[in-house]
From TrEMBL:
It comes from the Bacteria. Pfam families: LytTR (PF04397). This is LytTR family transcriptional regulator. GO terms for molecular function: DNA binding; phosphorelay response regulator activity.
């Protein structure tokens, strides 16, 4: 990808132009980052206390029994939002869909193992683990190979 920036006093406002031959997931992420003006915060609830969650410290977000939770080391916080709403907020923070019910932080991945059924078992730096279903494996491998800011070696 080539990036050109032209700074000149004649411009009165910032304008972004992307030239490409086809739409991609990467472009969608770039557009989402540009459109997001101020960072939205995620609030987690634990034992009736509301806690501000830093996306960098979240391993993954998951749905269970019609509720949404954020997994952070050995703790889980309930988030009172829909999974797709959280996904929009977290895309600029290098989160990707792992399955229909899980969104994971690719920067927290330590290693992964291929399961016999084609899924990937992902291990996070915190010791947590989660599965990536076959439908999402290729996109995540591509993102990591593209230079996603993951620590995966």
């Amino acid at each position: 990808m080539k990036v050109n920036i032209d700074i000149d006093e004649m411009y009165t406002e910032t304008q972004v132009t992307i030239q490409t031959n086809e739409w991609s997931e990467e472009l969608e992420e770039i557009v989402n980052v540009i459109k997001r003006r101020k960072p939205q915060r995620l609030f987690g609830v634990e034992e009736e206390q509301t806690i501000i969650l830093d996306p960098k410290t979240i391993d993954y977000i998951y749905a269970e029994k019609r509720k949404i939770f954020a997994a952070q080391k050995n703790r889980s916080f309930e988030i009172r939002m829909k999974l797709y709403e959280i996904e929009k907020i977290l895309i600029p923070h290098d989160f990707m869909r792992f399955s229909k019910s899980v969104i994971g932080n690719i920067n927290q991945i330590q290693r992964f193992e291929l399961s016999f059924n084609g899924n990937l078992c992902v291990y996070f730096h915190s010791g947590n683990k989660e599965y990536i279903t076959r439908n999402y494996v290729a996109a995540i491998k591509e993102r990591l190979a593209m230079g996603g800011q993951s620590d995966v070696k």
